[in-house]
Amino acid sequence: MPGHTYKHIEITGSSAESSDDAIRCAIKEAAKTLDHLHWFEVSGCRGVIEDGDVKHWQVTLTIGFRLNR
Question: Which of 57, 63, 65 is nearest to 27 (CA)?
Answer without folding.
Answer: 63
